[in-house]
Design goal:
The chain is built from 19 helices and 14 strands. Among the domains are: 101 residues, Phosphorylase Kinase, domain 1, CATH 3.30.200; 195 residues, Transferase(Phosphotransferase), domain 1 (Orthogonal Bundle), CATH 1.10.510.10. Helices cover 34% and strands 11% of the residues. It binds adenosine-5'-triphosphate. It is an enzyme of class 2 (transferase).
């Protein structure tokens, strides 16, 4: 048998937009693209400024046909406009919330390629960066301070009928360098509008999210849920405080991770105490309560965030040493939050944690190889419909603000009575939640739409995403081609935080691609229809998969 030819260059990123390039926004503002500091599957993350101003912001740029940024832009336009957040803060009488707001978004054409951009505030550093600098762990107090911010952010998202679905340190940014009380939740590429959620697992969606953190709902194939976000946060807290998770080594086998999580949850609080030894009772009690609240919440129900905020405040107080540690770690009910504790929590906003210099141990190096995988993004009916409802055309040279398109994104909210009816259903026992649930709800309407869209896309060659993919084995035309996860060498220089290696990954034909679409297969092995469909594109193994649980390669931390 002849030796296999080495794989050709496998994929290209979106064209690199030169620093200094000007974009005229529909709001009549001009934004100047700055240096690139991170790069995703097909997108790039740049600094940017508004013409005539010095304030640096962040601009995410992806080809207009790419999905993740589209998903984010939809979420930002629906729920993360500044005025929406300000109104919420006013209503809730809160000063600050750990969420970014949309500054601008639209399209521009660069070297004949239509690009989508979105501008959000620039933050100082990622929590993952802080965790790494701290030897892979965070103190219990810092972890709880972050949790406090994230619960506030989740509360806003949940009140807006969105689940985030991918809480993790890499998706948490600090407004101020090293100040954990300024933690902001970002990356809405997996965020899911829950209004049409049906408690019906779909194998195609199973394990969606970041494997080691994702919820048991996601493992079984349910769409992201509110309770799932809390469960994900609880797993993260264990990771931050202890530096590990019991299923870390099983990461490459999502079914085994799911099984391990089911056992872990079934064995609470003992299983938690085993992994969080020598932590204050209020800390383990707090995480235990998170699991408890999550497990007792119905799939479609909102989570009791007030209860969580109280236990987190108690845990911060206890971990700060304000209250003597208890000898046992069985506290399930949070202590009443005293005024003093509340003030201490508030004081944490000005607290200046000092990340320790990282000393890399052998065990830590090993841990790096089993870090969370890239979120596996799976299509939802909502995504499909969003794509169809968001026109991607724009006049040459003119930039269209997608907020104009927001009117087309009318949420099909369930009625209050429907929600009340769902709430009044008997609550399943926690163990039931860990099994597979069923429902007979049909998605034929969405299926018809998807089919129509694929038919349309298969004839639309102009919507190709710039990808070059080579067959891994030229001798076998039917063999799956290889897809590289290697970043383009055209990326800006500088130290990369992760290696970017990844080798070849077999491309499986997406299950939902209709025969008509398969005919439209591009010689790369990815059909134009697949490339044009963000949700289909997400299914291509390797396209979005970088090591270290993220598709983004961080070129350098923004200063
Ligand atoms: N507003 C911002 N300010 C500072 N850094 C940012 C900002 N947005 C993103 N980053 C940096 O880029 C990284 C990736 O951002 P983000 O998660 O939003 O992108 P992504 O393309 O969805 O990546 P991934 O799939 O890896 O999560 C962050 O971890 C952070 O280091």
């Amino acid at each position: 048998m002849p030796p296999k030819k080495p794989a050709k260059k496998l994929h290209e990123l979106a064209p690199e937009v030169k620093a200094g390039f000007k974009i005229d926004d529909i709001s009549k503002r001009t934004y100047i693209v700055g240096k690139q500091f991170a790069t995703g599957g097909f997108g790039r993350i740049h600094t940017c400024t508004e013409q005539g101003k010095s304030q640096e912001m962040v601009m995410k740029i992806e080809p207009s046909t790419n999905g993740p940024l589209l998903t984010e832009v939809v979420v930002f336009n629906r729920i993360l406009k500044k005025e929406m957040i300000d109104t919420y803060k006013k209503d809730k009488k809160i000063q600050w919330i750990g969420l970014p707001h949309l500054i601008a978004n639209g399209y521009f054409t660069y070297n004949s390629e239509k690009m989508r951009y979105m501008i959000i505030p620039k933050y100082a550093m990622s929590l993952e960066g802080a965790r790494e600098a701290n030897g892979g762990k965070l103190s219990a107090k810092d972890s709880m301070v972050v949790a406090n911010c994230i619960i506030g952010a989740l509360e806003y998202l949940h009140d807006s009928d969105y689940a985030h679905a991918d809480v993790k340190a890499a998706n948490i940014l600090l407004e101020k360098q090293g100040v954990y009380s300024t933690s902001v939740l970002v990356d809405f590429g997996l965020a899911h509008r829950t209004t049409n959620n049906v408690d019906k697992p779909d194998k195609k969606r199973a394990h969606n999210g970041t494997c080691i953190f994702t919820s048991t709902d996601a493992h079984r194939g349910n769409n992201p849920s509110f309770r799932g976000d809390v469960e994900i946060l609880a797993y993260n807290l264990i990771m931050w405080i202890s530096g590990t998770l019991p299923w870390l080594a099983l990461e490459s086998s999502p079914d085994k991770v799911f099984e391990a999580k089911q056992k872990f949850v079934a064995g609470l609080p003992g299983t938690l105490q085993n992994v969080l030894t020598s932590q204050p009772a209020a800390v383990t009690g707090c995480i235990s309560t998170m699991f408890d609240v999550s497990m007792k919440t119905q799939y479609k129900d909102k989570v009791d965030m007030e209860k969580l905020k109280k236990v987190v405040a108690g845990a911060i107080q206890s971990a700060s040493g304000a209250v003597p540690k208890e000898s046992k770690t069985t506290a399930k009910t949070p202590k009443k939050v005293t005024r003093k504790a509340k003030e201490e929590v508030e004081d944490d906003v000005d607290d200046e944690p000092k990340p320790k210099k990282k000393v890399e141990t052998k065990s830590e190096k090993t841990k790096k190889t089993v870090r969370p995988k890239t979120p596996k993004r799976i299509e939802t009916e909502e995504d499909e419909e969003d794509e169809m409802e968001l026109p991607t055309s724009s006049t040459n040279g003119k930039y269209k603000d997608e907020s104009d398109e927001e009117e087309e994104l009318i949420p099909r909210s369930t009625t209050r009575s429907a929600r009340a009816a769902a709430r009044s259903q008997p609550r399943p026992q926690p163990s039931i939640r860990l099994g597979v649930t069923t429902s007979t709800a049909s998605s034929s309407r969405a299926a018809r739409k998807i089919e129509q869209k694929y038919k349309r896309l298969s004839t639309n060659k102009s919507s190709l995403v710039p990808v070059s993919i080579a067959d891994s084995d030229d001798d076998d035309d039917d063999a799956p081609p290889a897809v590289s996860t290697e970043p383009s060498t055209s990326s800006a220089g500088g130290t990369k935080r992760s290696s970017g290696g990844g080798g070849e990954i077999a491309l499986k034909t997406p299950a939902l691609v209709a025969p008509a679409i398969k005919k439209a297969k591009y010689k790369s092995g990815i059909s134009s229809a697949t490339k044009a469909s963000p949700t289909e594109l997400r299914r291509v193994p390797g396209v979005r998969n970088f090591p270290k649980g993220r598709r983004t390669m961080l070129i350098k931390e923004v200063k």
